[in-house]
Each structure stands twice: as structure tokens, then as C-alpha cells.
Amino acid sequence: MGLFSRSKPKIKVETTKKDSYSGWIKCSNCLDMIHANELKDNLNCCPKCEYHYRLSVAQRRDLLLDENSFTPMYTDIKPKDTLKFVDTQKYSKRLKAAQDKSKNDEAIVVGIGKLNNKQVAIGILDFNFMAGSMGSVVGEKITLLIEYAIEKKLPLIIVSASGGARMQESILSLMQMAKTAAALTRLHAENLLYLSVLTNPTTGGVTASFASLGDIIIAEPKALIAFAGPRVVEQTINQKLPPGAQKSEFLLENGMIDLIVKRTELKKKISFFIDFFMNNPKDISNGKQKGKLKQLLKIADTNKEDKALK
Prior knowledge:
39% of the residues lie in helices and 15% in strands. By secondary structure, it is of the alpha/beta class. The protein has helices spanning 17-20, 36-41, 57-64, 91-102, 136-152, 170-189, 204-207, 230-237, 248-253, 266-279, 283-290, 292-301, 305-308; strands at residues 24-26, 33-35, 71-72, 108-115, 118-125, 156-162, 194-202, 216-219, 259-260. Residues 11-20 have low confidence and may be disordered. It has two domains: 21-51, no CATH class; 54-308, Alpha-Beta Complex (2-enoyl-CoA Hydratase, Chain A, domain 1). Helix 5 runs parallel beside helix 6 (170-189). The strands form two sheets. A seven-stranded mixed beta sheet has the order 3-4-5-6-7-8-9, sandwiched between helices. Strands 1-2 form a two-stranded antiparallel ribbon. The radius of gyration is 23 Å and the shape is globular.
């Protein structure tokens, strides 16, 4: 028997649970090591560089709403493969896989809840469900939520995280852009407040419709907000975009959004705007003309909300 053909004794190595999983992860932004518990305690924000990781629908709900105050609505509306669409696999199979992964029936959860004891209508897009894409059910649920807010005279909050319109539904998906925009026109006509919160990423048909129609548009830091992504734009125009051209900071500088708010401050800021406009409803439609919105944003940006409401 040759030297290298001999059977070799197996070396037994004792391992522990600590060895196989230490709980440490590398931040994808600053590349520093952070413990999973530390990340969780900091609302999924890196404590070193403040990079905002994505939140699930449940995490976002718990962040913004008072404990046990949320009641989901329109849960009976579920997606269908109306077009019998097939790409590399059937759309019906993609839906089932997305439902299993996200534990939600669709890419949005809508309902009513309380934010600092104030009743609100709220919708939260789920990026884990087919990249938060907007199909016919997403558009229908948003429209029904808007109509409910109009009926009950509630402030409306929609938290976006999306890759855009869902290609598997073709025109049925694209028409939701006009549908949600028309519903928001009715909301504005009733002088009700709509706060749009943009998270990373918010792109495509969602950006081009309801996400950009808020009375106040708030974004999380360094969120990608665009219609087409940077790679598509660069390939189309054959030139490089400026650094950070589609990040929330760039959009704030160029007047596309109103405010950038860290996740830890988000509930407080939204509560401030709701308190102000509930006491001054006419300022929702007239705020920009009177310059009050600019003043309000400055107050919110300098953390002087409590003084402003006195």
C-alpha cells in the first residue's frame, strides 16, 4: 500500500455552540464588528457608523406604534396570478415562496394603530416580499387605507421600502401608480395629513407615485431613493453619477424630500407633525404658501418640538 493511499485516522475536534456562532457580524457599511444583540438594541442601526439596516414589518410596526395598538385591515385580499405569468418560474410559485419567506400574504401590511396615543392609519411595505414590489393587491390595500383615513378623518402614514412596480403583473401593476395617486388627491382635498416615510431602498413605480406625494416626506439616512437605480441610469446616459446622487442626503439638498430622520427619532418627529396639524388643519394645504412648513421642518430638525407645541 502506498504512503498516500493509507487510510488516515480522523482527528476529532470538540466544538461548542460559542465556536459555531459567536453572535458577531461585520457591518456592511463600515466593516466594523458589532454584536447582534447590540445591533438589535439599537433598532438595527450600526452603533459605529449609524448605517440603517432594513426592518421587518413587525419591527417597523413596533418602532412606530404604541404597544398592542395595531389592528390589521383588509387581510382577506390576497394576490392572484391573473395573467398566468411565467419567467424562469411561475408567478404563483414566486408568490408562495415570498409568503413563506416573509410570513405575510403580500408586500404591504395596512391597518390602524396608535402613535403616542394618537389614532393613525398606517401602511408598511415589506421588502422581504418580492422586494416590496407593488402589485394590484398592494395598490388596492393602499387605496382602501386612504379611503378609510378619509372616512375616519385620520392622519395617514405610509412607510416605503420597494423595488418598484411588480413586472409579473404587467399593466395591472402599473395602473396602481395612478390609482394610489388619485386616492391621495381625495385625501388632500379633505385637508388630511399624509406623512410619507422613505427607507432603503425606495425606487421605481413606488417612488413615482404615492411615496413622493406626502405632505411631508421623511427619509432615513443614506437611503437609496430613485426611479431607476444608479447602474441603469449610468448605462442609459453613458456617464457616472455624482457620488451619493440617489441617496437621501442628496435629495434633501435638492428639495426632493423634506427631512432626514434617524430611526431612533422617527416616532417623535412623526408625532410632532401629527400634533401640530391636528391643531392647525388648514395649514396642511396652505403651509407651503405661508412658509409654515419650512419653519416646522426647521423646528423638527433642531429637536425643539416640545417648545413649538406649547
